[in-house]
Amino acid sequence: SPSNNNNDTITERIPLLSAITNEKNPSPSQLSTKSSVVSVAVQTDPTKFTKALRYLAAIWSDTTFDWISPLLETGNANGQLNVEDLDELPLPDDCETSQVYAQFWRCWTDELDKARVDTNKSNDDNSAASFLVQPTTTIHNYQPSLIKALARAFGADFLRAGLFKLIHDANIFVGPQVLNHLIQFLRNADAPIHRGVMLTVLVTVSQIVMSISLRHYFYKCYTCGLQVRTAVVLAVYKKSLHLSLKERHTFGNGGGPGEIVSLVGIDAQRMQDLMTYLHAVWYSFFQIGLAMYFLWGQVGASCLAG
Hints:
This protein is mostly helical. Helix content is 73%, strand content 0%. The protein contains 13 helices and no strands.
């Protein structure tokens, strides 16, 4: 049936838990070993138990990027990857070209509506108070902002990337602090052994969290940058289709078709590349501030000399 085919597809994409999810009726011993993951009510129902395992498998796949494993296996088996092999990757709905442009167009339309309303309001104010303003006074109307439209359309993912970067940068300083405590632990012969074990586990967990956070940060930034580039390229392309031949040759600063090609090929690419390093505006100060704080605790005011 179609439902069975979908279940088989999900299981194949998550090889780590395929042996568990393929079992129709798990044994009581298997159910008891997973009591910390699912409730007793779920364990008594194999259907709910399978759904819970698939939900956990989906979380594991998203966290560790396990969804790219089939593509890597295909490339390893064939020796190279072709364009049609990319169909194996699960494309999120918000990354489809139509969805990306529709989301941007809604936000850009809101900007145009604001400008239209502000223009009408300014015209009414000018006609009602034409004798109260100087003849040379000009009232600036609201100008639609491309930056605001892009921020409203794709800013949520960009902020989530910043959260991952914050977690990564905070864990950078866990290693040196734990190393300092480990040195003190090794110097003290009477220190309890569980303290050393705890420090070792702490530094291991912090490194794992730091690695996962950094990978998700770059993934979110690259995805957001690609969405921005797609929206800008499509917007410029559709705008050029509505221009007459004369308008195309006088587009921009007189660059004509070359100006349009430059917007699509160079400027849009620069906006995509900017997404990866735009968070440096805040995380550079965050890293410097934490480094100075911990250095002050170790060497005092001497850290200011460096």
